[in-house]
Amino acid sequence: MLKGIKNKLKRKAALKFLNVNKNKVVACSRVTKGISKIGCIVDLDSFADGTVFNEFIKEFSLQPNALKIIGYKKEQDKNSPYSTPVFSEEDLGWGAKIENSYALEFLDNEYDLLINYYAEDNLLLQLMTVQAKARLKVGFGEVDEKLNDLILNVPIKDFSIFKKELGKYLSVLNEIK
After folding, report:
1. What is the structure's pLDDT at 82?
2. Which domain covers residue 74, as residue numbers?
3. What is the DSSP letter of 140?
4. pLDDT single digits (tens) 127-174
5. 137 within a domain of the structure (yes/no)
6. pLDDT of the residue at 75
7. What percent of the chain has pLDDT over 90?
8. CA dihedral in degrees (132, 107, 39, 142; nearest 10)?
9. Is 150 inside any structural domain?
């Protein structure tokens, strides 16, 4: 019972943090044009193959280490190996902090492009989005539009359409050639 109360208090504080900070722009010192570093926050419960994002390395002619991917699983199996670093519900700490070494490492980096590959309002995924330092944030229309600069209304299950549409808009914005 005490654990349940503790989790409710953590979620309430995290929701408050999210509501206060989703309109704020996180400072990012990345250059003003061009994509040379990409971060991807992926809901692995809705889209199981986090490795497809590696296609962006070739697509945007990036260095192999210029792409960081972090996955979310509602319930993480500690014994199951994941090809993508993962955080879960149990990683929510006090003060809207995500207490997971992979998540903290992801948030320590700055990105030219942050891809929020989730289509449901999920507190932990949204906290990661709000706290990530990125010049341009891209996501889906089903999620609060204040979290993203560019919203793509495509099916989350069809990565090839997402990739094609993203490339088209980044080209229009003169971010890629």
Report:
1. 67
2. 2-172
3. E
4. 999 999 999 999 998 888 889 999 999 999 999 999 999 999 999 988
5. yes
6. 85
7. 58
8. -40
9. yes
Beta partners for residue 138, in sequence order: 115, 150
Nearest Cα to Cα of residue 169 among 148, 144, 143, 146: 148
| Nearest alpha carbon to residue 170 among 76, 51, 12, 33 | 33
Q: Taking Cα atoms as reference points, which of 91, 78, 154 lies closest to residue 127?
A: 91
Per the DSSP assignment, residues forming a β-bridge with 133 are 110
Question: What's this model's pTM, rounded to 2 decimal places?
Answer: 0.91
CB 151 within 8 Å of CB 169: no
Q: Both tokens of residue 141?
A: 């229309």
What CATH number corresponds to the domain at position 131? 3.40.50
Q: Which amino acid is at 43?
A: D
Residue 177 within a domain: no
Find the length of the chain: 177
From 51, 55, 90, select the one nearest 71 (Cα to Cα).
51
Over 90: is that where the pLDDT of 66 sits? yes
In tens, the pLDDT along 13-43 reads 888 888 888 877 766 766 678 899 999 999 9
Whose tokens are 């014994």? That residue is 79
In single-letter form, the type of residue at position 52 comes to V
Q: Identify the pLDDT of residue 79.
A: 59
Count of domains for the chain: 1
Measured CA to CA, the distance from residue 5 to residue 111 in angstroms comes to 36
CA 89 to chain centre: 15
Residue 33: alpha-carbon gap to chain centroid: 20
